[in-house]
Write a structure and sequence with these properties.
The protein is an alpha+beta fold and 168 residues long. It has helices spanning 41-48, 54-57, 134-138, 143-162, and strands at residues 10-19, 27-37, 61-65, 75-80, 83-93, 97-103, 107-118, 121-132. The chain has an 8-stranded antiparallel beta sheet. Helix 1 (41-48) packs across helix 4 (143-162).
């Protein structure tokens, strides 16, 4: 499925869903997207690790609580897709990689961002794996909305890091 804004900088994205008789209605859904951002890895990383501001630009995120700041092993809370997740930073390599795992009774998410310096900026690789009752939660939203949320996050990150006004 091609993102409608692909020409605006989201170069590639894919979604795969895995199910089995053992896990129904539980499933695993993985997403991958990439973009070239005309900003330094430091500029991009600054936005990724500013978890308190995610509600301002990450689709589906309604609120965050970051009691002790973001660093490797830091715990925080994020409300997304209508679920409150308890999260922990599992990957924290400044200007290179940021990852976290969040879970609730109904949902678990692994999100990682890999930043590779290239001329004239940063190649960003975004990976996301959702597990458990994610597919049940997704049934309450148009499939495209959930699918595009991952790509929209990458597009919005690109716009923020490049200092460009968001597209309508």
């Amino acid at each position: 499925m091609i993102h409608p804004w692909a020409g605006h900088g989201v170069s590639w994205a894919r979604r795969d869903t895995y199910r089995s008789d053992v896990t129904q209605p539980r499933a695993e859904s993985s997403m991958h997207a990439e973009a070239l951002i005309a900003a330094s890895p430091q500029q991009v990383y600054t936005h990724l690790v500013d978890v308190a501001r995610w509600p301002d630009w990450v689709p589906g995120v309604r609120a965050t609580r970051v009691p002790g700041g973001i660093r490797l092993g830091a715990e925080f809370e994020v409300e997304m897709y209508g679920a409150r997740l308890e999260a922990v930073v599992t990957e924290y390599e400044p200007d290179t990689r940021f990852g976290w795992i969040g879970s609730s009774v109904d949902l678990s998410i692994y999100q990682a961002w890999i930043l590779v310096p290239v001329a004239p900026g940063t190649h960003v690789i975004a990976k996301k794996v959702e597990r458990e009752l994610t597919t049940v939660l997704m049934r309450n939203s148009p499939a495209e909305e959930i699918y595009y949320a991952h790509q929209d996050t990458l597009l919005r990150l690109k716009q923020r890091a490049e200092g460009v006004a968001p597209s309508a």
